[in-house]
Specification:
Elements lengths: L8 E5 L4 H12 L3 E6 L2 H10 L4 E5 L5 H15 L4 E4 L14 H29 L2 E6 L12 H21 L4 E8 L8 H4 L2 H10 L8 H12 L10 E4 L12 H8 L6
Parallel strand pairs: 1-2, 1-4, 2-3, 4-5, 5-6, 6-7
Helix pairs in contact: 1-8, 3-4, 4-5
């Protein structure tokens, strides 16, 4: 594997599990020193420990501005610089608008959206001072289309997509690139309640053109590309990684219906 991140430092929020942990491991394998940041101290230290001298852990509640600022400061103090910021921490909630508790709404917006602002606000001056950097924000396919009963998450992730574009044009001349990644359904702790239910999993396997849910490593691969010099002329873009689900119109499988009408077997 290439050493694309040799001599570089990355900060990964939500780094204790799922996409964050997979990305921390991927960046370290390519030479980066990685600050793993998360509320889960036990799991976060475990992931950082796997990285040996290349890893460190910083506890953080990304919805708290002061803690996010301390996280960035700790990264620079530990490793001397900050080249890659992966704003990845996130939560979700279910409920139609009349049923959503306002506190829950505000918490989702704080963790999924405000945290991106806090992280970028703290990291960009550091990157500017050292001559550049790369930021990747985790959005979601729920930020480019709507889900039933997922309003707070849809709103937050949609905002992340467009805020990423603003960051990109504001800081392009400072050699700071900013992109977002939009995962589809991924086999992580956040989605466990769905993918561990056989009937729900079967529904997803039918719905996703590639016939399966994604894996955290498959998102980490894209994040590593976006953060690397291989993407040096790419900024302000939203990369969807969803097995093809958002390219479908949502209409029925016409071919199978026609085959049934003609008495043929479905493909």
């Amino acid at each position: 594997m290439d050493d694309r991140f040799e001599g570089r430092v990355a900060l990964v929020t939500g780094g204790a599990s799922g996409i964050g942990a997979a990305t921390a491991r991927r960046l370290a394998r390519e030479g980066a020193r990685v600050m793993v940041a998360d509320r889960d101290e036990a799991l976060g230290k475990e992931v950082a420990g796997e990285l040996g001298a290349q890893g460190a852990f910083q506890p953080v509640d990304v919805a708290d501005l002061e803690q996010v600022e301390a996280m960035v400061k700790a990264t620079v103090e530990q490793f001397g610089r900050l080249d890659v910021l992966f704003n990845n921490a996130g939560i979700g909630s279910f409920g139609q608008t009349p049923d959503i508790d306002p506190d829950t709404w505000h918490q989702v917006i704080a963790v999924d959206l405000h945290s991106v602002f806090y992280g970028c606000r703290a990291a960009i001056p550091v990157m500017r001072e050292q001559g550049g950097g790369a930021i990747v924000n985790t959005a979601s396919i729920s930020g480019v289309a709507a889900d039933y009963g997922f309003g707070a998450y849809n709103a937050a992730k949609g905002a992340v997509v467009n805020y990423t574009r603003t960051l990109a044009i504001d800081h392009a001349r400072e050699n700071i690139r900013v992109n977002s990644v939009c995962p589809g359904i991924i086999d992580t702790a956040l989605a466990k309640i769905l993918v561990t239910q056989p009937d729900v999993l079967a529904d997803y396997e039918k719905l996703v053109p590639m016939g399966r849910v994604g894996q955290a490593d498959e998102i980490a691969d894209v994040v590593a590309f976006l953060a690397s010099d291989d993407a040096r002329y790419l900024t302000g873009q939203n990369i969807v990684v969803d097995g093809g689900i958002t390219c479908h119109t949502g209409q029925p499988h016409f071919t199978n219906h026609i085959r049934r009408m003609l008495g043929e077997s479905e493909g």
